[in-house]
Amino acid sequence: MTDDHEYVSLVEVGPRDGLQFEDKVLCTQDKLDFIACVRRSGLRRIQVVSFVHPRRVPQMADAEQLVHSLSPSPEVEYSALVLNRTGLDRALSTPITCVEISVSASSTHSRRNTGMNRQEALAQATDMTVRARAAGLAVRASLQCAFGCVYEGSIDPRVVSEMAQALMDAGAQSLALADTTGMGHPESVRTVIAEVNKGIPSAQMALHLHDTLGFGLVNLVAGLDCGVRCFDVSCGGLGGCPFVPGAAGNIATEDTVYLLHALGYTTGVDWTGAAACTQKLEEVLGRRLPAKLRPGQKGVL
Amino acid sequence: MTDDHEYVSLVEVGPRDGLQFEDKVLCTQDKLDFIACVRRSGLRRIQVVSFVHPRRVPQMADAEQLVHSLSPSPEVEYSALVLNRTGLDRALSTPITCVEISVSASSTHSRRNTGMNRQEALAQATDMTVRARAAGLAVRASLQCAFGCVYEGSIDPRVVSEMAQALMDAGAQSLALADTTGMGHPESVRTVIAEVNKGIPSAQMALHLHDTLGFGLVNLVAGLDCGVRCFDVSCGGLGGCPFVPGAAGNIATEDTVYLLHALGYTTGVDWTGAAACTQKLEEVLGRRLPAKLRPGQKGVL
Q1: pTM score, two decimals?
Q2: Closest chain A C-alpha to B127 CA, distance in angstroms
């Protein structure tokens, strides 16, 4: 237990990564209601959209409209995912102030998603980072498949580290290591972070974890042990990636918050509020989400 | 990662804790097939039955018949749960050589399950331990609700420790701390183990974890950090307790084995074999079990 109730920063990615591949396309107002609910639970960093082609991700077709409809607040950081130059152009046409520029550490995964190998995709991403920073945006870089890829297996941690360094050198202010396929385990988490840590302090790192093999929270604890203090979460554990067979949702906001508080950290988030968001989302989606903690949960201390 | 591939002992409790409260009562042959499948996956310690009144747990009505039908092997330790004197008498009438004598650390939980408060139940359990040992049985003591109780909330770790010591003093050779309601989290796991550790070395301890709040594997890692090297598991994460609202299954054998191997431990168990047991069990039960790893799972390293 930490003595000083150290703060852990959570980024709610449910509106983006969570909803991204849901079959049911939500109307903009339902998404705004979800985001408002998330804010009420205390989350202050919310990834709201991906500026991706609507043919690829129909759920994100209203990205501009959604960003324009948000009530700006100095207390809340809204961010958008951008995967290519067109996406960045679209982001720059909106009031969004923070973008995540994402590239895959696996060449096969990168080619399948973008048509570029990882070196080509990295070159584009560093250019985009320079341009986004020049335009006054805050930039978080992210590396997909940092802990393994269903096509390539393990990814060399030195490749992850070199790509991370290139993105930080280009001006990214923080770096998310993404376990896109949920293949990570505590040892690979520790190994990759240790390698990346040679150039980038853990205070600038975030972990984006998926619970595919049920190791999401175990990996979170491994990340905490390595000094990481920022994690992506999604209400209900919503999410997944259809381009990666078997990839499950993100670690659930409510379960993560409860665990972090039990471990003595503060988050500023009320897990029951997050669980209430999940409950509303389940009504909209018409299905139960994987989070374990429910509103009115018995057996919590 | 451990350098020497330290051994972790797993006890498969699926045939007992897992099946215990399934609505569908399996025929003895289906249970024997499940146990044989579990053996083939490399598990060498299997809790096969509970000698409990069949009105209370109809699934266990064939306990004697099942124990008599097992093929004994010097390589395999079969055990039975006994909760009272009648249960021990029944165990002694069979060839079973190992019993788990279990008592609740929560008086409310104990009274609801046994009609006795925890002191009365403890007195009975220590008597039973003496008698079982005198009859030549191996005895594992276990403490239910060691990490909290839905009726009482937190349980004083000193109460857990005193009860554990009384059972070991009576002749129990090992001690399982059971998170019956799945309320444990890494801090409570560490706190209770540290208290019990004052009298009982962690080498004699086991953890029996439920995944109610999704913290089963996080708690396993906390137990490993405290030196515990024995854990109860059930194929597929089968299990739960109807006397405890919301209590989910045990940690899944296949997921636990995969995680332990990723952490550098050996178990002697093949997770794909355990996952195959789960698949057969799902056919028999007609429902999907919570384990994450499936036979042919993509994205494993």
Answers
A1: 0.94
A2: 31
